[in-house]
Design brief:
Elements (H helix, E strand, L loop, with lengths): L3 H14 L14 H4 L22 H6 L4 H14 L4 H10 L4 H10 L8 H13 L6 H8 L8 H13 L5 H10 L8 H14 L4 H6 L7 H13 L19 H4 L4 H9 L3 H29 L5 H17 L7
Length: 329
């Protein structure tokens, strides 16, 4: 949350630069006590919109709370990006409660943010709040994965809808996934759905355990390799219809959301060399499956047009990469 001193500094800065106003209520700030101190409040028509292409000086950044080194780095970053709405962007991030150090890292980590407007950032922040991300979690997500502010709201909604409707996660579970694995909003939808299906049907894992184990932090390839390596070593079995296994499977969170070193030493009881060789063999197996599907598909489609063959070939290649196999006639 924004401290009292920080609120005062933000208000002074916004009035000084006449930045296009950011909805402070969205940042949970109250300006009522500040407004009473002014003799007259300018009307909406009298408020001056900061002209595009404004150049922030190092001194203005120092006044916002940046250290001298941070101000110089931010100033250099702004000059390189040629952002037109940097003042309103910085204001929106300050209102959100982020400190100058975090803001600098965000701007450096995700240059796309420079091309946004303060109002756009505010809209995306409000949308994330509506999806259940509360104060603290919201700031951590944006600091860790600032690109979530540069993606269209429609894209975030598509991923959320897929997780709820096709993967049957609850609303709270979707919120937890966005909080723990925000990168999921950029993943290919078909690949994302298959990753869920692989864990659900192939591994026998239910939604609550997937969320707890932070399943979506791993790529599909990493998930397959870690699971199949344990399976072929006789250390993991797919549960039957009643959820029973002949051996005690390791907990999903114990071998997914851990480092490779921990996975190998504490769970798989194997060397890194053995695991890496296995991963290469897995990749070769998948390539052979793809080639076999190519041959089968070509033999079935001999009578098709050449364009149709190219389309089918492209679809089969995409399906292999996402984990789907083409249904044979």
């Amino acid at each position: 949350m924004v401290t009292h001193a920080c609120q005062r500094q933000i208000v002074r800065w916004m009035w000084r630069w006449s930045v296009c106003p950011v909805n402070a209520s969205g940042g949970h700030m109250s300006y009522s006590t500040r407004q009473e101190s002014y003799q007259t409040r300018p009307s909406q028509a009298d408020q001056v919109t900061h002209p595009p292409g404004v150049k922030l000086s190092v001194n203005s950044l120092l006044e916002m709370g940046f250290s001298e080194i941070q101000a110089e780095e931010m100033h250099e970053s702004v000059l390189k990006s040629r952002g037109k709405h940097v003042p309103s962007i910085l204001t929106a991030l300050l209102v959100l409660g982020l400190n100058p150090s975090s803001i600098l890292k965000i701007m450096q980590k995700c240059p796309e943010v420079h091309s946004l407007k303060g109002e756009e950032i505010q809209q995306r922040v409000n949308h994330l709040r509506k999806m259940g991300l509360v104060e603290g979690s919201l700031q951590r997500v944006i600091s860790h994965y600032p690109k979530i502010m540069a993606l269209p709201i429609k894209r975030v909604n598509m991923v959320s809808r897929l997780l709820r409707e096709k993967c049957q996660f609850t609303v709270q579970q979707v919120t937890d996934i966005l909080r723990d694995s925000p990168e999921v909003v950029e993943e290919d939808l078909a690949r994302l759905e298959y990753k869920f299906q692989y864990a659900y049907f192939r591994m026998g894992v239910r939604q609550a355990e997937m969320v707890k184990a932070k399943l979506f932090r791993l790529t599909l390839s990493e998930l397959r390799c870690r699971h199949c390596f344990l399976e072929r070593r006789g250390m993991y079995q797919t549960p039957d219809k009643k959820g029973q296994t002949l051996i005690l499977n390791p907990s999903l969170k114990d071998f997914l959301c851990v480092s490779e070193e921990t996975y190998l030493t504490q769970v798989a009881k194997a060397t890194a060399e053995e695991f890496h060789v296995f991963c290469k063999l897995m990749e070769r197996e998948q390539e052979e499956e793809f080639i076999n599907d190519e041959v089968d598909g070509l033999s079935e489609d001999d009578d098709d047009d050449e364009d149709d063959d190219d389309d089918e070939k492209h679809k089969r290649r995409h399906n292999w990469r996402t984990g789907y196999k083409r249904d044979k006639k």
